[in-house]
Amino acid sequence: MVGGDGYRENPKKNANKKKKNKRGGAKRRMTVEQTVAHKSVSEWVFLGSSAAASSVTGPDDDFAVVQTKVLEKLVFDMHSHSICSDGFLSPSKLVERAHQNGVKVLSLTDHDTMSGIPEAMEAARKFGIKIIPGVEISTIFSPRVESGMEEPVHILAYYSSCGPSKLEELEKFLANIREGRFLRAENMVAKLNELKLPLKIEHVAKIAGNGVAPGRVHVARAMVEAGHVENLKQAFARYLYDGGPAYSTGSEPDAEEAVQLIRETGGVAVLAHPWALKDPVAIIRRLKETGLHGIEVYRSDGKLAAYSDLADAYGLVKLGGSDFHGRGGHSESNLGSVSLPVLAVHEFLKLARPIWCSAITEILENYVKDPSEANLELFVKFGRNRVTKGVSPLGCGNELIKQCLSLWLTNEERQNAEFEAIKSTLSHVSINQGGLEVPTRSE
């Protein structure tokens, strides 16, 4: 949740504060820095929305600057899951729930897959929510000292609305992890059977759903349905916790490898829930050397000072999210329950937007080199203008580039030699229903 200053009030003081305001007392004011940050964040959030329509004559995009009314409160949730991994809601239902809770910017960060992003973005248009395409990558951290123990580490990746710059490379990387998750589930089921808790992998796979790589929560749900435990919490507490009697690892890559790939594919790499790690300082130090951009610091119960200090010490941006799965119950944080200060969001966007801009440039350059329909579809896979097979809704190549650049980049970013060269090249490309026609350029 982005407030004017990220300040969490003491409930015991609310009554006195309200009385003071009624008597004409001064309300807490934002500093100049907070005001500037809030204006910048608000402009990005409401690009192209009805809230900004009356005062903007520019495009609906991730980067263009608009003039819009500064709102008192914005709600960000940078960590959520759907049924595409181990969540309980479809991407569209997740977005609907986020809307009901007042969320304005949502990042869908399913485990090791981005398959739910297009559906989430389609639903987000209906509810006026901005989606940041994301993924939570399962990795293993291996200490350099012999006495150290390996432990699972999750890295969040955040991309522009255009998606990763090397989508196929990222998808291959994630597919290998998902394959390992199937083997991992089989190993967990085998261990449970050895513990005299009969369970079948087919049962787990059915719960996970078609094409979804099963995780611990799916095994836990199968255990509940089989009557071995009373609830999911009990399944984890007794059997499935890290290092537990039925715990198993898959084929997770090294954490440093994941951070490197996120950077190479135009993403922002953030360490997820560091408070769950056995040795967070060593992990943060190593991953920072590799190129880690940030760590989660904020939860629904507030800012964790120890991890905020670590972020400051290592020069990392501070984020946070609900890690919502839709399981229900009092133990899970709800969507939009994290108070994310406006200054934290502003710092994140200052870091992320140049990275995302570079990724968009790289995708455009690949399209110029090979203006195929496949590259066209990759170009707009996660964007607002989806391309159906065999048809370009944006017309010829020149118009395609002009419109897409206006959707994703500022005027200043578009007005350079690089983009002028791209537009010049694509002025000689036309796209028809039968595919691409590239006229021969006259010399």
- Principal-axis shape: globular
Which quaternary structure do these chains form?
Answer: single chain
SSE order, one letter for each helix or strand: HHHEHEHEEHHHHHEHEEHEHHHHHEE
Largest sheet: 8 strands, mixed
The counted number of beta strands is 10
Strand content: 5-15%
CA radius of gyration: 23 Å
N-C termini distance: 57 Å
Which runs of at least 5 residues are low in confidence (pLDDT < 50)?
A: 3-27, 50-61, 63-71, 385-395, 432-443
**Helix- and strand-based class?**
alpha/beta
Number of helices: 17
Q: Into which percent range does the helicity of residues fall? A: 40-55%
| Mean pLDDT over all positions | 81
Structure report:
The chain is of the alpha/beta class. The protein has a domain at 370-437. The chain has 17 helices and 10 strands. It has helices at 14-22, 32-45, 50-53, 91-100, 117-127, 167-194, 201-208, 216-225, 232-240, 255-264, 280-290, 305-314, 342-369, 373-379, 397-408, 411-414, 417-426; strands at 76-80, 105-108, 130-141, 151-158, 268-271, 294-299, 302-303, 317-320, 430-432, 435-437. The longest helix is centred in the middle third of the chain and has 28 residues, at 167-194. It starts with 13 loop residues before the first helix and ends in a 6-residue tail after the last strand. Pfam families: PHP (PF02811). Residues 1-33 are annotated as: Disordered. This is Polymerase/histidinol phosphatase N-terminal domain-containing protein. Residues 14-29 have a biased composition (Basic residues).
